[in-house]
Please model this.
Amino acid sequence: MVKVEINLGGAYQKMSPQARRRGQQAMANQALADMNPFVPADDFILRQTATIDIDGSEINYNTPYAAKMFYMMMYNYTTPGTGPRWDNKAKGLHMKDWERAYLKGAGF
Model:
């Protein structure tokens, strides 16, 4: 499970619950796409089993070994550029994109 929080201050309070949900869904979709290149890809199954909760609140990787791959620092990741905590790698590069996706999805 990957959870990203963004502080949008007063903009969040001015949005309807439906707009916030659409924004959350748009941001989750963008985050999933941006994280994908950093997810270990030995057989690509881990990348292919990612799902987003209906409200966009969480991204889930649905394999028995997902948590191990996400947290394990001492592992031989065979695909260059991949490894543990792929959320942090993508967040460092794409946070502004995720904020824009949220605002656009919310119609703000």
About this structure: The helical segments are 10-13, 17-35, 45-48, 66-71, 86-105. The mean pLDDT is 88. The first strand starts at residue 50 and ends at 52.
